[in-house]
Amino acid sequence: xxxxxxxxxxxxxxxxxxxxxxxxxxxxxxxxxxxxxxxxxxxxxxxxxxxxxxxxxxxxxxxxxxxxxxxxxxxxxxxxxxxxxxxxxxxxxxxxxxxxxxxxxxxxxxxxxxxxxxxxxxxxxxxxxxxxxxxxxxxxxxxxxxxxxxxxxxxxxxxxxxxxxxxxxxxxxxxxxxxxxxxxxxxxxxxxxxxxxxxxxxxxxxxxxxxxxxxxxxxxxxxxxxxxxxxxxxxxxxxxxxxxxxxxxxxxxxxxxxxxxxxxxxxxxxxxxxxxxxxxxxxxxxxxxxxxxxxxxxxxxxxxxxxxxxxxxxxxxxxxxxxxxxxxxxxxxxxxxxxxxxxxxxxxxxxxxxxxx
Length: 357
Ligand SMILES: [Zn+2]
Fold this sequence. Notes:
Elements (H helix, E strand, L loop, with lengths): L5 H11 L6 E4 L6 H13 L14 H7 L6 E4 L2 E2 L11 H13 L11 E2 L2 H11 L9 E5 L7 H12 L5 E7 L7 H4 L3 E4 L5 H10 L5 H10 L4 H26 L4 H12 L4 H20 L11 H8 L7 H17 L4 H16 L1
Parallel strand pairs: 1-6, 1-7, 2-5, 5-6
Antiparallel strand pairs: 3-4
Bound molecules: zinc ion (ZN).
């Protein structure tokens, strides 16, 4: 999936044929800077003419780049401090851990417990490697992610590389915060600003890359402020809140007074969107399906097995299918037409309560 905006694409394409100056990608977290940098690096290293399209069949070089395994694309990330005596290469294990996480989920990050930075030893390693022409590939590409976390002495160390990069070296620094980049480096880089991603792009990515249900993606994308990271957090939070609430209701509904039932129905109706209410009902149905099976080892919601097993004792299994029908009916109606959600949910919850009797 190509996340680049037209502005970013035309800026980068213009450089593909020429000598590429040091580049500085600036923009908030989660808006696709790193994704664009990796894709640009892939295009730089691609040997095909014309270059491989991301959506088409990829050459061997491009496949390696996409897998984050290309020998000429070098990733630099901040890693925890090793204290005194830091040597070139001693952060490679940590950088490897970060890449392992990214190979499974590109927008995820390995989080270290300690404070991280890019140290001078890494800057020296970049310079050393930059002066060697890569085997079988035209150019070495260095992606310095979170360049704002590069220590000042490390920034000073790569200054020479920024001033006079060897012809076969491409340096791309990525930052959320321009102020932390030394003015001497800033002024010598071509800057490219990244804007928040379009909501439709975030939605597409949630559905295609993360297999998020379309309904959930449609709710999260507009609230994400164009950040994939934020969109994923919103999806997780919504799933969690709706799911927890569904189990609270299953556990409480049978014995709770009518006022509790109505209060909870109103709470659900205020979830903010039809889609989130529909997802809540989906969870509720899933819980009653487990109650219907009556067999704890067959429960789908194993994390709630104890509560659900206790509920099976409260229910005549012949009555649970009617509960499921009512939930599914309400779910479909909420998605299909503009009905009064408060009334529909109060009716549903009271019906479930009465079906038990
Ligand atoms: Zn290619």
